[in-house]
Every structure is written in structure tokens, then in C-alpha cells.
């Protein structure tokens, strides 16, 4: 199965800053709604933690 690269949204005109480190954010993989914090790529990766295969843990293949 091949994964498609997500379409990035240019958000420079919104003047967004990372909610954790304050770095300016120029693009996101989604259109922000304004009611939730946004994070830079590095802080988002740290918040997710190690890759576990999703919210329910690693997938088992039989």
C-alpha cells in the first residue's frame, strides 16, 4: 500500500505561531479553524510520541 503525500496549506497570511515554541508557521497539512492550537512540525512530532501504529497501538497481522 502506498501512502499519498498530504496537500499542504499555505498559512503565512494568518501569522500563526507554534503554541509550544513560538516559531512562525508557514504551512500546515490542514486548514486551521482558529479554535485549537497549532504546532510546528517538530513540536507536533514530540507531542505524538513514538510511532505506535495509531491510537490503539500497533496493528497485528495474522
Tell me what you see in this structure:
- By secondary structure, the protein is largely without helices or strands.
- It has a domain at 9-48.
- The protein has one helix at 41-48, and strands at residues 9-10, 27-28.
- The protein has a two-stranded antiparallel ribbon with strand order 1-2.
- The longest helix has 8 residues, at 41-48.
- It is extended, with a radius of gyration of 14 Å.
Question: What are its keywords?
Answer:
single chain; 62 residues; little secondary structure; two-stranded antiparallel sheet; 1 helix; 2 strands
Order of helices and strands: EEH
* Distance separating the two termini: 17 Å
State the major sheet: 2 strands, antiparallel
Structural class: little secondary structure
What would you call the shape?
A: extended
Radius of gyration, taken over Cα atoms and rounded to an integer in Å? 14 Å
Overall mean confidence score, pLDDT: 85
Measured as a percent range, the helix fraction is 10-25%
Q: Low-confidence segments, ≥5 residues, pLDDT <50? A: none
Q: What is the strand tally?
A: 2
The helix count comes to: 1
Largest beta sheet: what is the strand line-up?
1-2
Proportion of β residues?
A: 5-15%
Quaternary organization: single chain
Amino acid at each position: 500500500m502506498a501512502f499519498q503525500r498530504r496537500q499542504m496549506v499555505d498559512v503565512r497570511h494568518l501569522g500563526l505561531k507554534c503554541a509550544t515554541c513560538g516559531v512562525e508557521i508557514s504551512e500546515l497539512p490542514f486548514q486551521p479553524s482558529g479554535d485549537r492550537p497549532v504546532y510546528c512540525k517538530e513540536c507536533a512530532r514530540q507531542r505524538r510520541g513514538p510511532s505506535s501504529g495509531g491510537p490503539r497501538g500497533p496493528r497485528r497481522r495474522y
